[in-house]
## 1
Amino acid sequence: MSRITASKFKEGRVYASLNGYRSDDFNSYLFLSEDYGSTWTAIAKDLPSEPVNVIKEDPKSENIIYVGTDGGLYVSFNKGRSFMMWNAGLAKSVPVHDIAIQERENEIVLGTHGRSIYIAKLDDIQKRAR
């Protein structure tokens, strides 16, 4: 297991990201539960086959989620039904191992492997979701 993240928008909603490093399985695994983990739905079927390290919800929109993988950062505007790569200012194929959201500054902070940290404003992403 890589992470379990509870929603701040809806009680009972939880995300789980998994990686199979220890089993030489490098596919992407990301799941959503709306019922406290009783049932799970696979999301992010369009992510590339690479380990998923972390998932975070946007602080202002429950539909936006951010996913860090071994190949970079991905953004969904529809709670994980589809994703697009975030490549504005972020080096290509940088493993993202942690994500923090600074709500006061409305910034995303990424902990990467080999590239230190990356900080970006979330304003443009949030406007796109409206």
Note: The chain has a mean pLDDT of 91.
## 2
Amino acid sequence: MKLLHQAWHANDILEWTIAAAVAACVLVALAVLRFGAIRVLKALSAKRAAVYCDIATDVVASTRLWLLLPVAIYAGASVLELPRNVEQFVEAAALIAVMLQAAFWVSRVIECWLDRGIARQHVVDGGVVTALELIGFAGRAVVWGLTLLFVLSHLGFNITALVAGLGVGGVAVALAVQNILGDLFASLSIVLDKPFVVGDFIVVDSLRGTGERVGIKTTRLRSLDGELLVFSNSDLLKSRIRNFKRMFDRRIEFTIGVVYQTPLEKLRRIPQWLSEIVGAQQRTRLDRAHFKQYGDSSLVFEIVYYVLDPDYNIYMDVHQAINFAIFDRFGREGVRFAYPTRTVFVRQEPAEQAA
């Protein structure tokens, strides 16, 4: 009260009136500037449909008029003779208001990025939305935490001990919840790097299923038998993941065996028959067909081809048609398929030796 009394008597009525007029003019000017900037940015956004114009509009609209008041008062106080303590108080209030307003702007930028990131998802995935919201929350927490430290530092508080305490506390918390944090960061890695997405059919070690949900701590797959498979996110990323949904085609390699009694002329023609059979199928591309090796009970031929569609049912339909065609062609050509056999040669001893 004594400082206010000194400030009041240090200036006459005219100076106080001028100071009030300056403060009012600055406040009105800032409000008009905010309103005009919003109108201009909305017009630009409507004409160009630019994302940065929408974000700039939202950021300007987040300007708080009550935070402009300390700035206006500081402008008005510049024409007055004030005690040093009052002058420092007004200056600190204006600076704190500017820092708070900057935090609102940065926070709004993060929110706009988050909203547009969610809107870009063609199918709303709860795991993706949750991860993006966590990123946005962490970003805003960092912004406001730094703003609080700057404000306390400007007010004269010693924040060194506070920062050290926060550091030690953060390390302790991190050690206590390191498994949870590991799964959380693994979830963010899955969402951002996308080794698979919801709907992909993947194989993890000996388990396989279709992705249902990527959560904060766990990922859920629906197996072919209908059971729900739950993986820890960190364990999932440590495993070898095979993503069949990302396949462009399927490579098939199989062998058939014919009996050793097959004539040489027909053996020479079998690779050609196999090539013709595979080439006659739609959505296939032959790689090779060869007489591979002499087996224990058969002469082995190897065929390699591609099905130009990753769908498993289509692959099975094509392979079934090829098997039927091979069986039919070999039957017409008189070539017999081999199966495990063993020939036993019995030698009869002469009668004299037997006696």
Note: DSSP finds twelve helices and eight strands in the chain.
## 3
Amino acid sequence: MSYLSRESASLPEGLWGQIDDAVVKTARRVLVGRRFLHVFGPLGAGVEDIAVDDADAVQEVERDGLITTSGRKFTEIPTVFEDFTLFARDLESAKKSGFPANLSKAAKAAGACAVKEDRLIFFGDQELGYDGLLTAPGAKKISKKDWSAGEDAFTDIASGIAYLTEQGFYGTYALAVSPDLYLQMQRIQPGTGLLEIDRVAKLVDGHIYQAQVLGKGKAVLAACDEENMDLVIGQDMATAYLEQKDLNHSFRVVETVLPRFKRKRAIVVFE
């Protein structure tokens, strides 16, 4: 039996394809972190952990004839999931009428799963020992000015980029902002005839993203090339079959995913 257990389900012909389309379309619309982080994988559901190096400190150490690697740890790739149920009568009705099945529950589960992935990317999980962009130790913290006034947003981001270049990060920069800050930059900058967000976007070559999971008043700038950070994917987001109970069919949108920060100095947090 495969990891997703699809062969155990007796479902109308073509339904799996419809479910996959609904899940993929929703995930692509919701996911933010994957838009700027390099994806390492998919490696497969059977890959349970991955090496996480501190790129500035990793080295081989010899002692008493034994060689080990310092600056490296092996971290479990966590499973992210959300369940949903399709009613048997609804599926039979769609089959009889010839209309597509209502897969709003599948789309909702995919959206919830995508939000959980982004929350892990941006905030990690302190209790479980996972770092996020805003919580990684060693990230630069900058006190944010009022981005609704003057050119504060532009000068803050410019300061962040100046810091990154001073640290030797010259590659691709990406800026993720909370929705309120994104809206605050939608205004004409006096004397320029340009929107503030357009000026900021030029600083990061257009790599600016609105992230709902950031809540309010938060932004993060990252030198996001793969030598600095990436997103490890074991099992990419897919739908598994759980069981048939009370004639209804239960499913699970599931993935295994881990944000991996190799050089935490490549992150600037505005707070």
Note: The chain has two domains: 6-132+229-262, 140-223.
## 4
Amino acid sequence: MSTAADAPSPLARLWHVGAAGVVAVALVGYATATRNPPTASRVAPDDAAREADKMPSYAEIGEERRGPNAELYTTAFPLLESGKPGAFEPVVQTAEEHQAVVTARAARRAYDGAPPTVPHDVVQKGFPDCLSCHERGAKVAGKRAPRMSHARYDNCTQCHVPSRAPAPLPPADPPVENAFVGAPSPGAGVRAWPGAPPTIPHSTLMRSECASCHGTGGLNGIRSTHPYRESCTQCHVSRAELDQRAPAEAER
């Protein structure tokens, strides 16, 4: 015989009713889902293409160029190639053209053999992307960016500094006296006899890529008359004094 103490409390009855309601809702949902299964939504091919255009990937966002100069480099390399003469075309150059190139070359260096200065502004807040133009050579905004004359080194501004200060320099103390005098440009290479190949009229350090200056993309004053011959040092030898080698060492 049950007593009043054995009867469930009002809170327990509430939990029982709630549990029964949850089970009932779950059963109704299961029955509805099995009777009418959802169908996969399909997007038309044209709609998919439009959605792809609207939503570029993160990689595409990072590589996308923006602004008025976005297409600056699009034709830079083809322009340089299209302006080059053929390897077998005759080269006609005068002494005046040669001297003009030598004078312009000296103006970009503190002394003969020094790395040339950068004739344009360089953004120093990050890694300068010099290789985008100078690794192969390019023609940008009507100006020729020559190909590197040496093997690839990524820290370009370690040797090449801007020709002008990127910002006004603060007042400094009087400069320290310096008696250093750089070597003058030797000009043309000497020949052992008339008709012999001229010696290389400059040091060969960091100048292993002769075609950078003397190839088909070089200036007319110093462009080679036979750029199809790519083994330059087979005929043109370096000079010991320009490469800072002792004569005794050069004779061995």
Note: The CA atoms of residues 114 and 198 lie 22 Å apart.
